[in-house]
Amino acid sequence: MNILVYGIGGVGGYFGAKLATTEHHITFIARGAHMEAIIRNGISVNSILGDFHSHPNLVTDDLNEIQAPDLVIFGVKSWQLADAAKNLKPYVKPDTIFLPLQNGVRNSEILIEYFSSQQILGGLCNLISYIEAPGVIQHTDFVPTITFGELTKKKTKRLKALSKLFDQADIKNIIAEDIQREIWKKFLFICTISGLGGLTRVPIGKMRDSRYLSEIMKNTANEILFLAQAKGINLSTDDVAKVFKIIADQDPESTASTQRDLMNGRPSELETFNGYVVHEAQKENISVPVNTFIYECLSPMERMAREKTPS
Description:
48% of the residues lie in helices and 20% in strands. The chain is an alpha/beta fold. It has two domains: 2-177, Rossmann fold, CATH 3.40.50; 181-308, N-(1-d-carboxylethyl)-l-norvaline Dehydrogenase, domain 2. It has a five-stranded parallel β-sheet. Helix 6 (179-200) packs antiparallel against helix 8 (211-230), helix 6 (179-200) crosses helix 12 (289-308) and helix 8 crosses helix 11 (271-284). The two termini are 30 Å apart. The mean pLDDT is 95.
C-alpha cells in the first residue's frame, strides 16, 4: 500500500514512524529542519514503551514528488486541515482513502468539501507526544491508539484492511461502532480542559484541585453535552462522568497541546474547540455562557498569534 502521512508532528510523527517499520511505501509531508533531519537520519521515537527508529521511503515538502496515495493520514492541526486537503487534491486518486486524526468534530465535514464522502473515514487518536528535536518524537504516556470507522456506521472490507495495516505496524487500533460518538467523547474531554488550561496557564492537577475551577470544567462539559444532544449525537451524562474519571487519573503536571500553543503564543485549536461550541450553540439556540467566556477571553490572543504565524 502507498501511504502518505501529511504532517509529522507529535501525532503524524509517532504513527508515521510506526508505519515506516513495515514493508509498505511510506511518504512523509514535513517541512523545515524537521524534514531535513528525517531525510538525513530517519525518524526516531523516544517512547515509554521502548525507543525505535525508522526510515520512510520519501520525505518532502513538495507534493509534485509524491506518488498518488492509496491512504492519506492527516497529522496536521485541525485549523490546518482545509489547506492540507486543498493542496493535496490534485495529487490523489478517486479511490484514495482519507483518515483524519485531528482533535475536533468537524474534520470529516472539512474533507467532504474537497473529496467524495465515500473516500473519507472518521478517526481520532489517543496519544501524548511532541517533537522533541528535529527528527525526534517524544512519546510520554499510555499506549497510543487509533480509533476509526465509516461515517455510515457500516462494517466494510476497507476497515478490516486498515486494521490489519495498523496491526502490522504494531499500532493499537479500534474499529468504532459509531465513530461520530467516539469523536465527540474525545471532544468532550479535550475541550473541557484545553481552553480553561490556556486561560489559567496551570497544569490539570491545579485545575482539578480547585473547587472553583473544577466547577467551571463541569459546566463546560455539560454545555458540550447539551450541544451534542441537540445535534443528534448519542452522548449522555454517563459520558461526562467518564470524562471526569479520566481527568482525575491524569498526571497532575500534564497540559493539553492547545493549552501549550496558547501559552506559547502559537496558533491553536481554540476555534475548533470552545469556538465551535459557541458558534454551533448559536445555531441551535442553546446557551453556553462558560464556553463563551473562555472563548472570548482567549480570542484576542489567538488572533495575535495567527497574525504573526502563516498557516
